[in-house]
Amino acid sequence: MISPQKVARWIDGWDAMQSSYIPTREARFSAMASLLAARVPSSFRFLDLGCGPGSLSARLLARFPRSRSVAVDFDPVMLTIGPIAQARFASRLHWVEADLRTDAWASRLPRGRFHAAVSSTALHWLEPRQLQRVYREVRGLLGPGGVVLNGDAAPLAQPPGALDALLTTYKDGQRRDARRGRAPPDWQGWWRRLEREPGLRPLFEERARRFPRANDHEHEVTEADHVRILRAAGFREAGVLWRDGPNVVLGASVA
Ligand SMILES: C[S@@+](CC[C@H](N)C(=O)[O-])C[C@H]1O[C@@H](n2cnc3c(N)ncnc32)[C@H](O)[C@@H]1O
């Protein structure tokens, strides 16, 4: 199987690739951490939805030494390289293989309530009715005072209107500045190169079975719809807590 040193390089490449699409990704992680710090006790347990290789969990676990994460994903490649990359967190990071598109995902979690549910660049993979179910389940998993922090892109209007066009122009300029003439390490290219690693081919075949429409996951729920769905799921308050162009952190509070 792939060595930890190699995995570390793939994860560096993942973070660079994600940041080339979201130049303020690290600032968004940091904002999410600060928002959590203002709300949860120092020893807290959180759920990371669509965790990928564990980027957000790793940043929160490093910043809050008494926190614990339950990280959920359904991609067999991510669920193989993630635990190797984040092995330093040992039992503080618990990986769960579950499909957020299904009703049964929450039954795969270890028992107990969470102080927070977080997510980064993942929930736009869900269709609106799947997102509704996930938010409802999450509401039931949070204890008193629990919070949701979802960092993702969300349009203002659907179909996107003039203000969304303005935000897109802003985002494109930001990406251009961040790349400074370098070729962007794109999504497809990162996956294609990783697939050539010896031993990973069967995982890629399983990945294709689980996500047959690999590039068809842009379900753009507007900010206002996120807020409406969160309120309908039983959250007392919901709103945008941080913004950088089309990139937002949507928050919701149990009480
Ligand atoms: C763009 S990646 C983001 C990963 C990580 N949160 C980050 O910010 O680096 C989206 C992640 O959502 C996961 N995901 C998408 N649909 C899912 C589903 N139905 N169930 C579980 N995970 C899902 C994907 O497998 C992928 O790892």
List the helices and strands and how they pair.
Layout: H1 4-21, H2 25-37, E1 45-49, H3 55-63, E2 68-73, H4 78-85, E3 93-97, E4 114-120, H5 128-141, E5 142-153, H6 162-179, H7 187-195, H8 201-210, H9 223-232, E6 237-244, E7 247-253
Parallel strand pairs: 1-2, 1-4, 2-3, 4-5
Antiparallel strand pairs: 5-7, 6-7
Helix pairs in contact: 1-4
Bound molecules: S-adenosylmethionine (SAM).
S-adenosylmethionine (SAM) binds next to α3 and β2.
Descriptive notes:
By secondary structure, this protein is of the alpha/beta class. It has one domain: Vaccinia Virus protein VP39 (Rossmann fold, 3-Layer(aba) Sandwich), CATH 3.40.50.150. It is 43% helix and 20% strand. The chain contains nine helices and seven strands, in the order ααβαβαββαβααααββ. α4 links the parallel β2 and β3. α1 packs across α4. The longest helix is centred in the first third of the chain and has 18 residues. The mean pLDDT is 95. S-adenosylmethionine (SAM) binds next to α3 and β2.
Task: Tell me briefly what this model is.
The protein is of the alpha/beta class and 255 residues long. Helices cover 43% and strands 20% of the residues.
